[in-house]
Amino acid sequence: MPEPELFAKGFGIVKNTKISHFTINNYSINETPIKRYSSYKYDVSITFSSDDVITKESLQTLYGFNHLENNINSSHGNAYACTLDYIKEEKIDDHSVIFYYIGHAERIY
Questions:
Q1: What's the rounded Cα separation, in Å, for the pair 107 and 11?
Q2: What is the value of pTM for the model shown?
Q3: Which of 8, 17, 24, 72 is positioned for an S-S bond with 2, CB 3.0–4.6 A?
Q4: Are 105 and 7 in contact (CB under 8 A)?
Q5: CA-CA distance, 105 to 31, in Å (whole number)?
Q6: pLDDT tens figures, 3-42
Q7: DSSP for the chain?
């Protein structure tokens, strides 16, 4: 399975990364095996901040990442077909928002 850090990097989830006028401040990834060595689920939350006041219009930039796909290797070199899907967001304050995603990894044989 792609370890949580590899899963994050495979989708460009790296602390301090800038996406338009947003910055990834923090993220959390919890991995759950569905079928060991074959299928995994990831609960992902990403905290974004902006120097500008966050509006519904400015969030459109982040909504562009509502479904992503990538092949990611585990630390053992096994390839997995991975997806990351948007669930919801939660505005923390005028300058911060948390986006929640569900991820999946299926081993490629």
A1: 17
A2: 0.92
A3: 72
A4: yes
A5: 10
A6: 999 999 999 999 999 999 999 999 999 999 999 999 999 9
A7: ---HHHHHHHTT--TT-EETTEEEEEEEEEEEEEETTTEEEEEEEEEEEESSPP-TTTTHHHHTTSEEEEEEE-TTS-EEEEEEEEEEEEEEETTEEEEEEEEEEEE--
